Amino acid sequence: RVESLVEELFNLHDLNHNGVLEELELIKLNQKIAMLHYGKDADKQAVGDKFRTLFRAELDADGQPVPFAKFRGYMFKVLDGLDRSKAAQELILEQFVEEAKS
Q1: What is the pTM of this model?
Q2: Backbone angles phi, psi at 68, to 5 degrees
Q3: Is 9 exposed, middle or buried (0-12, 13-18, 19+ CB in 10 A)?
Q4: Smallest Cα–Cα separation from 10: which of 25, 24, 21, 23?
């Protein structure tokens, strides 16, 4: 189930459905999620800066699009850092997926 949720999350991030995650897609989706959490007070510039930095530090240093395998590896690193329990990871991913769908 965790694998399928990671794949679903990738597909939700792939806004233009070209099979890769682009830096701008990661930024745009997380700006939208910030708006859901904080409303009009969300600092879209700060969110953009944060996820641009994250993309370049964790996915591709040049900001180039990355395939699912790279995203998958990153997500498992994040999940293991949050909680090593597969049941907990499933719940975390379900939350991430629901936020991405919003």
Answers
A1: 0.89
A2: -55, -40
A3: buried
A4: 21
- Please name which of 67, 70, 92, 69 lies closest in space to residue 79, comparing C-alpha atoms: 92
Q: Do residues 36 and 102 make contact, with C-beta atoms less than 8 angstroms apart?
A: yes
Amino acid letter for position 10: F
Amino acid identity of residue 100, one-letter, is: A
Amino acid at 41: D
What is the DSSP code (8-state) at residue 19? Answer: S
Length of the chain: 102
List residues bridging with 20 in a β-sheet: 67
- Amino acid making up residue 43: D
- What's the token pair of residue 37? 């959490």
Pick from 10, 20, 3: nearest CA to 100: 10
Per-residue pLDDT of the chain (102 residues; tens, 9 = 90+): 999 999 999 999 999 999 999 999 999 999 999 998 899 889 999 999 999 999 999 999 999 999 999 999 999 999 999 999 999 999 999 999 999 998
